[in-house]
Amino acid sequence: xxxxxxxxKNDPFLALRYKDFRSYLGIKFFFTFAYQMQAVILGFxxxxxxxxxxxxxxxxxxxxxxxxxxxxxxxxxxxxxxxKKMLLLILTAVTxxxxxxxxxxxxSMETYIHAAWIVPILYVMVFCNGVARAFYNPAxxxxxxxxxxxxxxxxSSTWNSSSWQIASIMGPLVGGLLYGFYGITITFGVIIFxxxxxxxxxxxxxxxxxxxxxxxxxxKSLSEGxxxxxxxxxxxxxMSLDLFSVFFGxxxxxxxxxxxxxxxxxxQGLGIMRATSSLGAVLVMLTMARFSPMGKPWRNLLIAVTxxxxxxxCFALSRNFYLSLLFIxxxxxxxxxxxxxxxTIMQLLTPDHMRGRVSAVNQMFIGSSNEIGxxxxxxxxxxxxxxxxxxxxxxxxxxxxxxxxxxxxxLIPLSLNEISAPEVETVNNI
Length: 430
What we know:
Elements: H1 19-50, H2 53-69, H3 71-80, H4 83-104, H5 115-147, H6 153-182, H7 184-202, H8 218-230, H9 233-248, H10 255-262, H11 266-290, H12 297-317, H13 321-349, H14 355-367, H15 369-384, H16 386-407, H17 416-420, H18 426-429
Helix pairs in contact: 1-2, 1-5, 1-6, 1-7, 2-5, 2-15, 3-5, 3-14, 4-5, 4-7, 5-14, 6-7, 6-11, 6-13, 9-12, 9-13, 9-15, 9-16, 10-11, 11-13, 12-13, 12-16, 15-16
C-alpha cells in the first residue's frame, strides 16, 4: 500500500496525499511542459524553413512510426521491468535528443552543418523521441496505477489530466514567447532545463518490482494484451472513438499555417493558440473535479467528441484571432472530458499484471493518434488547402460520432459502477 498522510473520502486532494503519486506528477508535469514547448517551436521553425504544410505533417509521421511500431514491445518491457530505472533511461534519452536539436540550431554550427541538413536532422531526433515514447507511456501508466489504491483512481486521473493540461497551457505559451523574442536556440536551452527537472523527479520514485514474469514467448504475451483490449467492448470503443476523431480532427498540426498565413499573429500568437486549447481543458478539468462526468460516462464521451468536432469546424471558418481563440478554447475543453473518461475507464478495467501491455495498445490507438492526425492534416492541406482540410476533418469527426452512437446505444445508460464492477458482464456482452 502506498504511503499516505491519512487521506479521507471525498477529499479533492486525495491522490496528492500519496508521496509516490506526487513524484509521478512532477515527472509528468515537467516532461509535458518541455515536450509541449518543443512541439510548438519545432512546428513553427520547420514551417519557416520549408513553407510547407506537408513538412509539418512529416513531423507527426516521424514520431508516430516508432511510437506505433514498437509500442507493444514497449508495453511488454514495462510489465517485466523495474519502472523507475526504465523511466530514468527514457528521460535521459529524450534530454540527449533535445540537446542535439539545440546544437543544430546554434549559429556557430552553420560552418559544420549545411542548412539543407537541419530539417532532416530534426526529423531523426523526432523519430528518436517516438522510440522513447513507446516505452515512456506504458511505464508511466503502470507507475500511476501503483502509486495510489484503486478507489483513488478517479481522483488521481483528474489530477493527472489536470497537470498534463496545465503544462500544456504553459509549455506552448512559454515556447512561443521565447521563440518570438529570443529565438529557437535559447528556447531549446530552456526545454533541456525542464527535462532535467523531470529526470531529477524520477529519482524520488521508489522501486517498483515487476508484477509480471513472462513464462510464455514474447508473441504470446503480446497477443494476450491485445486480446484483452479487443474483447472489452467499452475499452476498444473508447479507444476507437478517440483515434478516429483525433485522426480527422487534428487541426493542431496546422496551427503554424493559421498563425503565419491566415491570422497573421506569428510565433507568439501560435503559442497563445496552443495554450488556449489547454486552458480550456484545465478549466473544464477543474470543473469536473466537482461535477464528475462519470455518472454516465459513455453518454458524456459521445457528447464531448461531438463538441470537439463542432469546435474544429467553427475554428476553420473563423478569420478573427479572438474568435479563433474561443473555438480553440472549447475544443480543448471538450477534449479534456474525453481524456478523463477514457483514462478512468482504462485504469478501472485493466488488471495489474497487464497494465504495460494494455497501455501499449492504448499507445497505438491514442498516444500516436495526434501524430498520425498531424500527418493526415498536412497531407489533406497539401491536396485540399488548409481551411478545406480542417473543415473536412471536423465533419468526419461528427460522422464518426454518429456511427458510434448507433453502434453503442446499449452503453449509454451505464454508470461507472456498472462498468467497473468485476462481477458485471454487461459491458462485454453488448
